[in-house]
């Protein structure tokens, strides 16, 4: 399922397609905004979005076999809720 399919599924509940698109975009923006602030987003019955920090580490460039430094970074995580599947 892609974003267009998801909009169509939301629109099937009785909303206009344009309103479904706006609702989905607003939801995604709200979740992304909270994650950028370092907050956790918990949707009971669906799952939890959170931010994890990955430590800096050494890696190997596969083309040259040279050792490279991979900097620390933040990544988004999703943990599925018990009722999701």
Q: Could you walk me through the main structural features you see in this protein, from its secondary elements to its overall organization?
A:
The longest helix is centred in the N-terminal third of the chain and has 20 residues, at 17-36. The chain has 85 residues and is α+β, with helices and mostly antiparallel strands. The strands form two sheets. The protein has a three-stranded antiparallel sheet with strand order 1-2-5. Strands 3-4 form a two-stranded antiparallel sheet. The mean pLDDT is 94. The protein has two helices and five strands. The chain has helices at 3-11, 17-36, and strands spanning 41-43, 47-54, 57-60, 67-70, 73-80. The protein has two domains: 1-39; 40-85, IHF-like DNA-binding proteins (HU Protein, Chain A), CATH 4.10.520. Helix 1 crosses helix 2.
The CATH C-level class name of the largest domain: Few Secondary Structures
Regions with little confidence, pLDDT below 50 for 5+ residues: none
**Average of pLDDT:** 94
Q: Could you estimate the helical fraction of the residues in percent?
A: 25-40%
| Order of adjacent strands in the largest pleated sheet | 1-2-5
CA radius of gyration is 18 Å
How many distinct folded domains? 2
Can you name the CATH architecture of the largest domain?
Answer: Irregular
The CATH topology annotation of the largest domain reads as: HU Protein, Chain A
CATH superfamily of the largest domain: IHF-like DNA-binding proteins
Q: Count the helices. How many?
A: 2
Strand content: 25-35%
Give the structural class. Answer: alpha+beta
Q: Give the tally of β-strands.
A: 5
Q: What is the string of SSEs from the N terminus onward?
A: HHEEEEE
Largest sheet: 3 strands, antiparallel
What spatial form do the alpha-carbon principal axes imply? elongated
